[in-house]
Design a protein that fits this description.
By secondary structure, the chain is an all-alpha fold. The chain contains ten helices and no strands. It has two domains: 47 residues, Arc Repressor Mutant, subunit A (Orthogonal Bundle), CATH 1.10.10; 138 residues, Tetracycline Repressor, domain 2 (Orthogonal Bundle), CATH 1.10.357.10. Helix 4 packs parallel to helix 7 and helix 5 packs antiparallel against helix 8. 30% of the residues are buried.
Length: 187
């Protein structure tokens, strides 16, 4: 199925073509998946789109750099090419966009929040950061770099994201208004 997706892209992917390539029937596919969005998400899960082991270097900076490097390596693999195409298709299919946000987009935010929780325990970061938009800026910037410039995202860029943008944001004091804005759509 992923080979078909790689060849034709999500927009041209049909259950008929997938069934033909898998030497099965459309009915068999529809018994298991409600449509192509569900099928693609399950195939991506099997190929490890949403799996990352959280690094533990002992420091916030080291952990964030290591996480972004892991994400960059995944983006540079064949999986990344598929992911780039899937992200581009989100604007055309609301159901598919919802699934991407629920099943793939959460990888970075969940990972970075796990790293931030450890940093809170070590006293490196204030607890309010976990529920702020600041928490996911590093993974958002990496994704933006990937979408705009492709993969791999170099170590120099990753270090700039962490040192020049992310650490100053998460180590800064809470906003004076006391309002901490949660990141939209994160799990």
């Amino acid at each position: 199925m992923l080979e078909e997706l790689t060849e034709v892209g999500y927009a041209a992917l049909t259950m008929e073509r997938v069934a033909a390539r898998a030497r099965t029937s459309k009915a068999a596919l529809y018994r298991r998946w409600s449509g192509r969005a569900e099928l693609v998400m399950d195939a991506c899960k099997v190929r490890g789109f949403s799996e990352l082991d959280l690094p533990d270097t002992g420091t916030l900076r080291g952990d964030v750099i290591a996480l972004l490097q892991l994400m960059s390596a995944k983006m540079a693999s064949p999986i990344g090419g598929i992911l780039r195409g899937l992200l581009a298709e989100m604007t055309n299919d609301p159901d598919f966009a919802r699934l991407i946000r629920e099943r793939i987009h959460t990888v970075g935010p969940v990972g970075i929040r796990g790293i931030l929780r450890r940093a809170v325990e070590r006293g490196e970061v204030e607890p309010w950061v976990l529920d702020s938009r600041r928490a996911v800026v590093a993974t958002d910037l990496l994704r933006n770099e990937f979408l705009l410039f492709g993969a791999p995202v170099g170590d120099e860029t990753i270090t700039e994201i962490v040192d020049d943008v992310y650490l100053p944001l998460v180590l800064a004091p809470a906003p004076k208004s006391g309002r901490v804005s949660g990141a939209r759509g994160d799990a």
